[in-house]
Amino acid sequence: MNRDILNAINVTLDGYSILISLIIVISIFSIKQIEKSAKWFAFTNIAAMFYGLTDLIMWVSEGTDAAWKLVVLPVSSFLFYLSGILIFLFYIRYIIEYYNGYEKLSNKWWIFCVVMIIVYEIFTCLCPFINIYYYISPDNVYHRGNLFIISVAIEAILYLEALFVVLKHHKKLSNAENIGFASFIFCPFIAQIIQIANYGIALNNLGLTISFFIIYINMNQRLKTKLNTTEEQLNVLDNKKTNLLSNTIINLANLIETDEPGSNHTKRITLYSKLIANTCKKNGLYTDTINETFIKMLEKTSALHDIGNITIPHPILVKPSKVTPEEYDKIKEHALAGSNMINSVLSVGFEREFINMAYDICKSHHEHWDGSGYPEKLKGKQIPLCARIVALADVFDALVSPRCYKKTVSFDEAFRIIDNESGKHFDPELVVEFLKIKNKLIEIANTYSDSSIEE
Predict the structure, then answer these.
(1) Mean pLDDT within 110-118
(2) 401: alpha, beta or left, given left = phi > 0 and alpha = psi -120 to 50?
(3) I need a surface site. Which of 132, 138, 311, 416 has the fewest CB within 10 A?
(4) What confidence score (pLDDT) does residue 371 get?
(5) What is the 3-state secondary structure (H, E, C) of 98-159?
């Protein structure tokens, strides 16, 4: 094969090898938190990049047609051997650190590797003087030295060391991981044998690149598995936290109902609110706000809508007749009192979005669409959507459920009253969706009626 064509092939192979190793290095170091073993694999690829670069420079710097080549070829040849053996140093350290994640390996493996590297580097430093691994002919062309086999032998010993470690501990790893480690042992080694038999074509870098690519794929798969495991663990913790929050909410809501023995009011409000929100989502209303997260939070926070009631004097709450204007003013204070309690009681342990929704519901579920409500006389969409939904659920429940100060009305009458209050008390768009689910609302009311507790 023509020498120029061969050089072009070798330069191309080295270029691809450098590029792939560079991509692997960038990918590894782009991960915010990487394992110690992954860092050593990155160092292995950095050494491989330098190895490939010096090999590429060797191919293009042979000859005497330019003065710079007479300097560059000897220097690049020396660095080629100097950096090439570092691939083994970093890779074997990578293997050791990888297995240390499962079982602490003896230091003898690392010590043996370092000793062999030192021996190799000593011979490398002697090469410019006694031509052990290579020599540069007078026409400035690289040639293998008479004792080139020493470099191959040391590399073979290091390959065998890596193979022995993998075979000794292979049961601790998956088949894919073992194949990745084996690829480094066999791909470059086979390429080295072919290269020795066919002097002139550089396959060693190609063998390394193939093995590194296989290992990198396995590394990504392992990272994905660990991320999935971590995600599962986080989900377990999140479920525990959710249960804790739910229990806290239930206990807080129970404080509200202590003055209403045998009441399922809070339960019904959570179910009504969730049903209304799901209906809006299904029919494409307020889709910029209503999503699964919104609905889950609404289901829990709606239970706290009247937590401020515990600040209202007991006689007023249980008064069987109409309250006075002064007493009504006292009742209206529960909205602000409840929102203040939310900020103080839930400030530790709850997500900010959760606290904000609970705050909005407590404070604004008595606001009216036309601005005639309290405590701030908000109007229209100034009223938070979560509070508008709970307001609708709360009034409906108040109409169809018995209270100490009033009798119930029929479901038909309750729906008529709410329809009449569309655009005045309630968000008209929500009322439209509300009236579409009459049967489901009635089912909740009957299933969780206050009399069902006694039964």
Answers:
(1) 94
(2) beta
(3) 138
(4) 95
(5) HHHCCCCCCCHHHHHHHHHHHHHHHHHHHHHHHCCCEEECCCCCEEECCCHHHHHHHHHHHH
Phi-psi category of residue 355: left, alpha or beta, with phi > 0 → left and psi -120 to 50 → alpha: alpha
Torsion of CA 380, 382, 385, 388, to 10 degrees: -50
CA distances from 14 to 49, 207, 212, 277, 290 (A): 9, 11, 14, 61, 55
Other beta carbons within 10 Å of 240: 10
> For the residues 270-283, what does the mean pLDDT come to?
96
Give whole-number Cα distances, 179 to 32, 128, 425, in Å.
27, 39, 69
* CA-derived radius of gyration, the chain: 38
Q: Provide the pLDDT for residue 225.
A: 67
- Amino acid letter, residue 76: S
Question: pTM for this one?
Answer: 0.51
Contact 234, 422 (CB under 8 A): no
Closest by alpha carbon to 44, among 113, 78, 95, 10?
95
Check the CA dihedral 283-287-293-296 and report its sign: negative
| Coil vs helix vs strand at 8 | helix
Retrieve residue 193's tokens: 């044998």
Question: Does the pLDDT at position 175 exceed 80?
Answer: no
Name every residue whose Cβ is closer than 8 Å to that of residue 101 and which is 6 or more positions away in sequence. Answer: 35, 37
Tell me which long-range contacts 340-349 makes (C-beta under 8 A, separation of at least 24): 341/307, 341/308, 342/304, 342/307, 345/252, 346/248, 349/241, 349/244, 349/245, 349/248
Q: Is the pLDDT of residue 188 over 70?
A: no
Nearest to 209 by CA among 23, 32, 83: 23
**Cα-based torsion angle of the residue sequence 271, 339, 357, 241 in order, rounded to the nearest 10 degrees:** -80
Return the residue matching tokens 């509300």: 434
- pLDDT digits 0-9 by tens, 72-99: 999 999 998 988 899 889 988 988 888 8
Q: What is the mean pLDDT of the segment spanning 165-176?
A: 76
Residue 360's nearest CA partner among 430, 292, 434, 302 is 302
Provide mean pLDDT across the span 178-187.
70
Alpha helices by DSSP H, listed for 258-384, are 265-282, 292-301, 314-317, 325-345, 352-364
Q: Are 277 and 290 in contact (CB under 8 A)?
A: yes
SS3 (DSSP) at 403: strand
In the chain, the amino acid numbered 288 is D
Residues 6 or more apart in contact with residue 190 via CB below 8 angstroms:
207
**Token code pair at residue 49:** 């990049």
How far, in Å, CA of 393 to CA of 268, rounded?
8
- The answer to whether 48 and 83 have CB atoms below 8 angstroms apart is no
Residue 25 and residue 212 in contact, taking contact as beta carbons nearer than 8 Å: no
